[in-house]
Amino acid sequence: MKIVIEKVLKDKEGAAAIAKESPFYPDGKGGQLGDRGKIGNANVKKVIQKKDGIYHILDKEIEPGEYEVWIDENRRQDIAIQHTAQHILSAAFMEVADIETVSFHMGEELSTIDLGAAPILKEVMDEAEDLANKIVLENRQVKEHIVKREEVQKFPLRKPISEKVKGDVRIIEVEGFDFSACGGFHVKGTGEIGIIKIIDYEKVKGSLMRIYYVAGMRALREYRKRVDILKSLTSKLTASVDEIEKRIENILEDAKRKSSILDKISEEYAKVLSSELLKSADKIGELSIIFYEGFESVGKYLFKFLGDKENLLIFVKVDGGYEVGSNSLNIGELIKKMNQKIGSRGGGGKNRGRLMTNFGKYKILEILKEVLP
User: Fold this and answer.
1) Given pLDDT bands bounded at 50, 70 and 90, which one contains residue 213?
2) 202 CB-near residues (< 8 Å, 6+ apart)
3) What is the C-alpha to C-alpha distance for residues 58 and 14, in angstroms, rounded to an integer?
4) Which of 215, 241, 217 shows the shortest CA–CA distance to 230?
5) By the 8 A CB rule, do 190 and 101 touch?
6) What is the DSSP letter of 150?
7) In this structure, how many other beta carbons lie within 10 angstroms of the beta carbon of residue 200?
8) How far is the C-alpha of 255 from the C-alpha of 251, rounded, in Å?
9) Cα–Cα dist 132/124, whole Å
10) pLDDT of residue 104
């Protein structure tokens, strides 16, 4: 198999080798992934169809001319499996609940179908998934029909084609189950798919349900990953598969209870600590300045017990800097001045803000002496 490269341009992703015609299927066409392979000794990273030709994004530059090409047939077969699985799953939702497919996107790891209804009951999803896999197990033929535009009405298409479509139309039939106009790759028989599995779903765009699915070897890899995770969890939690959900619920409930207790202890400690911090506060004129660099769970309560004190400035250490508060200073203005002085970041309102800096207490005290009124 050969290709004629007419022009090569530099692209931000690599070299773009442009041809008028190409055996490589473009990325994104019909929601499908594109081919990968080689042109000469250069690897094809992406294939883009544009008005002036087919752009092959390569990992190295080549000269214009004629080249031998190699296409990754294993990838193409995986694409065919995922794409045919989409036809079957979409038809199954129509059969089970009269729910139409609005759009389809194929990813490198998993694919999505947007369905024109939300929410969809879990029982409906299971029923559609069961029906889809029944069609797979029956190893029905997947046939290609190339027909004239005026002959399309002879086929019970799941989704009507646009009136803008002219010329011959390619119709993919899953024997006795689905007819769809499509230009992508498909298997010869549904048995090649192996299995179709919905692995997640979510409501999107208000009235659509997006389902995430895998098929073929992708489904096997996903199942293997989840079994390995489950096995690891059952071992760590010393629980059987049947017990693990209850065990995790107990652990989460216990963690929630302990977190609540810890929060109350932190609050009580902050209350006691407040008076000690006031006694040891640094002074700049009439202003007392407190620094606390301990537990954040304690620090957040210091503002509760000290925030209403007059002539007090509080710095509580947080990730990346300090939470700052005062009842006597405009904190937003103070942080703005410090940012200009030391190149820190952050901001705030009248009484509270955040100063993002790596400087510690003593350097900040030096800067405060310069910026405080």
Assistant:
1) very high
2) 209, 210
3) 6
4) 241
5) no
6) G
7) 10
8) 6
9) 12
10) 92
Instruction: HSE, CB side, 13 Å, CA atoms: give it for residue 225.
Output: 8
Residue 64: cis peptide before it, omega within 30 degrees of 0: no
- Contact status, residue 113 vs residue 101, Cβ threshold 8 Å: yes
Angle (CA) 179 185 187, round 5°? 75
Residues 3, 69 contacting (CB under 8 angstroms) = yes
Q: Is 324 exposed, middle or buried (0-12, 13-18, 19+ CB in 10 A)?
A: buried
State CA 360 to chain mean position distance.
Answer: 38
Using DSSP's 3-state secondary structure scheme, residue 56 falls into strand
Please indicate, yes or no, whether the overall pTM of this predicted structure exceeds 0.90.
no
* Residue 10 amino acid letter: K
In the chain the domains, ranked by start, together with CATH numbers, are 2-71 (2.40.30.130), 76-220 (3.30.980.10), 264-371 (3.10.310.30)
Pairing of strands 282-284, 287-292: antiparallel
Mean pLDDT score of the chain, rounded to an integer? 94
Beta bridge partners of 62: none
What pLDDT score was predicted for residue 56? 95
Among 225, 202, 205, 201, residue whose Cα is nearest residue 213 = 201
- A 10 A CB-CB count for 207 gives 12
Q: Is 152 exposed, middle or buried (CB count within 10 Å of its CB: 0-12, 13-18, 19+)?
A: middle
Max CA pair span of the chain: 92
Structure letter (DSSP) for residue 154: G
Any idea of the CA torsion for 64, 70, 73, 74, to the nearest 10 degrees? -100
> pLDDT tens-digit profile of 98-112?
999 999 999 999 999
